Amino acid sequence: MPRPIVTLTTDFGEKDYFVASMKGVILSIAPNAEIVDVTHQISAFEIAEAAFVIDQASRCFPKKTIHVVVVDPGVGSARRPILVQSGGQSFIGPDNGVLGMILDRGKCTTRELTTERYFRHPVSQTFHGRDVFAPVAAYLATGTAPSRLGKLIRDAFRPALSRVQQTSKRSWCGAVLTVDRFGNLVTSFRREDFPTLGDSAFDVKIGFETVIQLATSYASMPCGELFAIWGSAGYLEIVMNQGNTAKHLGVGVGAPVDLLVY
Amino acid sequence: MPRPIVTLTTDFGEKDYFVASMKGVILSIAPNAEIVDVTHQISAFEIAEAAFVIDQASRCFPKKTIHVVVVDPGVGSARRPILVQSGGQSFIGPDNGVLGMILDRGKCTTRELTTERYFRHPVSQTFHGRDVFAPVAAYLATGTAPSRLGKLIRDAFRPALSRVQQTSKRSWCGAVLTVDRFGNLVTSFRREDFPTLGDSAFDVKIGFETVIQLATSYASMPCGELFAIWGSAGYLEIVMNQGNTAKHLGVGVGAPVDLLVY
Amino acid sequence: MPRPIVTLTTDFGEKDYFVASMKGVILSIAPNAEIVDVTHQISAFEIAEAAFVIDQASRCFPKKTIHVVVVDPGVGSARRPILVQSGGQSFIGPDNGVLGMILDRGKCTTRELTTERYFRHPVSQTFHGRDVFAPVAAYLATGTAPSRLGKLIRDAFRPALSRVQQTSKRSWCGAVLTVDRFGNLVTSFRREDFPTLGDSAFDVKIGFETVIQLATSYASMPCGELFAIWGSAGYLEIVMNQGNTAKHLGVGVGAPVDLLVY
Prior knowledge:
Three copies of one chain form a homotrimer.
Chain A lengths: L4 E6 L7 H12 L4 E6 L7 H12 L7 E5 L10 E6 L2 E6 L5 H4 L4 E5 L15 H14 L10 E2 L11 E4 L2 E9 L5 E6 L11 E5 L2 E3 L2 E2 L10 E5 L4 E6 L4 H5 L6 E6 L1
Parallel strand pairs in A: 1-2, 1-3, 3-5, 13-14
Antiparallel strand pairs in A: 4-5, 4-6, 6-7, 8-9, 9-10, 9-16, 10-15, 11-12, 11-16, 14-15
Helix pairs in contact in A: 1-4
């Protein structure tokens, strides 16, 4: 029987005891769990960044995987801990938007995590990753029924994380969703919404530059030239071959991106 | 049967082959081991930081867990490799203080690791993590009796890592033990030693600031205000809601912290 | 039966979804795989750095380990994906030199990975780590015969990564192969090629300094003094006890290192 997979996505970094504490709690309850780090380098308190990463990463994991996402500036406040089930996988985190792109997929069931029997006690006011989210994930991994963890809710928080607005018949305004480690700018334009992009001339305006080429691979373009590409996440990316686009343009997450199709 | 857990805490960083070499050695001897990284981002040679992290992290792991801690500026010198057993767990590292907070718990048995049969040969002068600590941990994970690894000792090194001194009837002097990834300052004042803090007025002086409020959660305080909180590690922390306290105050590990209770 | 080990070495960093996607793909195909991170902090596109790290790390892993190495500036171009088998282990990566030091060991069999049935579809143009290398490694872990993955080739790319040139009867010119996390400079001089170094006087010239001492451990030298040592990787290293040599000398990867033996 395969081991239950539990993934972790946090803004805890890796220098402190935080992540290891969560893993110790999980392995104490579910010794058979296979723990996989997605990342602990979400920028501190950056909910949108975490929402994007878990949406992407989870797509490659098998059904039954349990994803724990803890970016939680409101820890200790009234924000609810939730469980979202979507596509056969489970997602656990605070109800602050980190699971927003999962909720946007539709066909979810969402529960508020209220059954304190499945928490680690005493529950601290500052570390729900260890005291609430990790133990609940571990109990789920051991086969605890979701219905035991709390009641269904219908008002989980869904921020407008990845929207594109149409501004005229042939123009749209989006934004930079995330900047990857290579400096590539992932924009909010999705391939499925613009399947024919590149069939006619277009402009992408970002920072002080205008991008007019759509390439099919990095290697097909000269080093140092700016171009667009459909990235592996299914979004339009503004990139350079072996260059750091974010540094070159001086733009980051949230920067506006304007698309005009001729 | 659950797999034996071996955790790793080092100052090796993650860019080199060092950590992977240790994991390869462990899995070659104990293919069934479950290896968990606590952190490899201890500041280079910072024994006190490692001592704090492993003390905290180990509390969440189940009995029988084997913790390897390698922060070892004296590698190749006469400092002894040791095994400390405490609370049903095993701790392996150099006898230079990294296991000091474990030893401070009392009720430990400590052995010097002298049985070279359990080392990887030839033993290099510069990488005992791979050649001494990893293989000994792996043999322990496969069920080797601790008594085979070396003789009991009673003089393991216990530096004064987390002491608080009383300076008058109502004042104490402590220090910053560690700075976490969010910039929160963890001080050496322990909750169990000051259970009534906050019942009457108090001052905490640190850097050029005086802190007079004790909060129960980050979210209960306005952004940008400095306050004290009992952290998830059981120590008094000086923090800001969504701000970096260490940068704000310009203080770091070892900075004095003065407590006055009125 | 021990679980099949799959190691990962990339320049993807740890903040994005890239590494987790590869792990999800592997666990979807080979739920029993034991995934070990070697490092994801290879400098972006630095093939020589990756070649050195996997050569070192792999030496500590058991036979049958499968190593995936993805540093791939030419992703989407015509460069071939390859499988190298050496010493009972398998190495998977692009044919761009990242496996050069494995190929230099001799006694390898090398195959071009052409059987698209073992890829993840659709194969993106920008993320072969997820779509080609991870699934092929996973199928290998489940017992797929290498001969099914593609045909033998004899012309895999072997760059001159770690060469030393003799410049006169008693002098040689090498280079800095890598800089470790402590700032130690690993040079291309191998212990097996200079077994008697230190028996007579010698000079190592690097940057504006000349090193004349060969020590057997860091701890045997005073802090702040520059010296040479045979490192744990079997190469001559230029180091300081508890100091950062790379910063002190202002040199990095590729810097020339001249050895003169009197």
